[in-house]
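The protein record passed on for reference:
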Amino acid sequence: MVNQCTQIAIGALLVSGTVLGTGATRTFGDEIRVTIDNMNSSEGFFFTPVWLSAQDGSFDMYDRGTLSQPNWPGMTAIAENGNTGPLDAAFHACGAGMAGGQSMVVTANTIGPPVFNPGESSTVMFDIGDPTVNRYLSYASMVIPSNDLFFGNDDPTAHELFDVNGHFNGPMEILIFGSMVNDNGTEVNNAYGDAAFSLNDGQAMPEYNPIRAFFTDPGDADYLASFLGTQTASMDTINSVFGPQDVIARIRIDQIPAPGSLAFLMVGGLAASGRRRRRMT
């Protein structure tokens, strides 16, 4: 069945980039700190800027076993090109985004392409709005170089940031294993078939297969190995591959300020105000 939310957003031709939701009720504890790490071995695989959302659990990005096109064009844009714009537009066109859900795109702290190099990390502050509503975290990114490999949670309620009362459930750590990578099923896996972020020549070949877990096909490991010795768009050479048991990415989340720190600041501030006015630096 066609995902109507996604189709509306694509039809509107909203531009690529982050579109922040509005109307969320602000409360203490609605800001979290997110750190994203590329855990691949040196000279291994990269991944594109990571799309994050905090939402009410109603926004489903994709389902394994279904065709990405025409059902999930926002995910196809990420899986084939690392383009977060269509998925973000779908998020804010209806569903969780309309309910005040928030989103952002996390890029790497580097000069040059904003992709996450092996071993690279980035930390951002994410204002999630109302924690009693936007309780769940979703994420998505493309694995590169590849034709259409990506990672992202297909269950929108898999990662509960806050409970029903808005209390933070963390700190939390999400480990993304090679077995959690997906094949989008829209482009034939061929290292010399116009794989994204690769300098290999070739022409991409479309396919029409359901989204599936990578490493479930006998040729998947060989596909990754075919990138060994080839160069990326940033002139790096791929000399290491990952397997299903390898951690390729990590997302760490904590609350800013931590509940104990907030209480300390409030009590300390009240006590200090009874004595004298003091400038905080």
Summary: The longest strand covers residues 136-144. Confidence is low (pLDDT under 50) at residues 6-29, 261-281. Helices lie at 4-11, 68-71, 73-81, 85-93, 220-225, 259-275. The CA atoms of residues 80 and 148 lie 5 Å apart.
